[in-house]
Amino acid sequence: MADAPLRPAAEPFHVLAAEDEPHTCRILSTLLEGSGIHLEIVCDGAAALSAVRGESPYDLFLLDVMMPKASGLDVLSEIRSLHRRAKTPVIVLTAKGQDADREEALSLGANAFLTKPFSPKKLLNLVDELLARR
Question: Does residue 119 form part of some domain?
Answer without folding.
Answer: yes
